[in-house]
């Protein structure tokens, strides 16, 4: 049997219990067609890059599947008919990942790292508002409209001499 990683996006107005019910429904489809579902990760409600069917957010869910292609095709067919599933993507893999996925690792690392204020600036020292000094350049003057460019001259070739 082939190994797959399957991610689907469910509508934002569903509850977490409804998303879990969708997962159970699709697990049943895979099991009925001779496959099995390994790990299931709920990545939670995340913002979408662009609106999909008038939704700005979606519940992301990852499933590791071990099933024949017919079982996968049936599950994808049912997902395509469901109004609750916005998008799905299935990738064939050589072996399932052990441990949490990259999305879950990122969340765990973020909590261990702390906030932005905890970062070490190395040999640069603390940052202050006045560190934008340009050194040898004189300050800009915006009050002089003529500036270094000189006076404006009218365009040639326009009818009536209009600019």
From TrEMBL:
- Residue ranges of the region described as Disordered: 97-163
SUPFAM superfamilies to which the protein is assigned, alphabetical: Ribosomal protein S6
Q: Where is the composition biased (Basic and acidic residues)?
A: 97-139, 146-163
- Keyword rRNA-binding carried by entry: yes
**Record Pfam families:** Ribosomal_S6
Please provide the record's keywords in A-Z order: Ribonucleoprotein, Ribosomal protein, RNA-binding, rRNA-binding
> Among the entry's GO cellular component annotations, what is one?
ribosome
Q: What does this protein do?
A: Binds together with bS18 to 16S ribosomal RNA.
Protein family (similarity comment): Belongs to the bacterial ribosomal protein bS6 family.
UniProt protein name: Small ribosomal subunit protein bS6
| This protein's encoding gene | rpsF
């Amino acid at each position: 049997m082939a190994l797959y990683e399957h991610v689907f996006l469910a509508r934002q107005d569903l509850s977490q219990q409804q998303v879990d019910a969708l997962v159970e429904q699709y697990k049943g489809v895979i099991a009925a067609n001779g496959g099995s579902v390994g790990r299931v990760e709920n990545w939670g409600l995340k913002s979408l890059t662009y609106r999909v069917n008038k939704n700005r957010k979606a519940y992301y869910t990852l499933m590791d599947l071990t099933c024949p292609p017919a079982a996968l095709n049936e599950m994808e067919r049912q997902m395509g008919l469901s109004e609750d599933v916005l998008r799905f993507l299935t990738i064939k893999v050589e072996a399932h990942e052990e441990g949490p996925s990259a999305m879950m690792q990122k969340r765990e690392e973020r909590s261990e790292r702390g906030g932005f204020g905890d970062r070490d600036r190395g040999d640069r020292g603390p940052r202050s508002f006045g560190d934008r000094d340009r050194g040898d350049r004189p300050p800009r003057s915006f009050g002089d409209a003529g500036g270094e460019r000189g006076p404006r001259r009218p365009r040639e070739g326009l009818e009536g001499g209009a600019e």
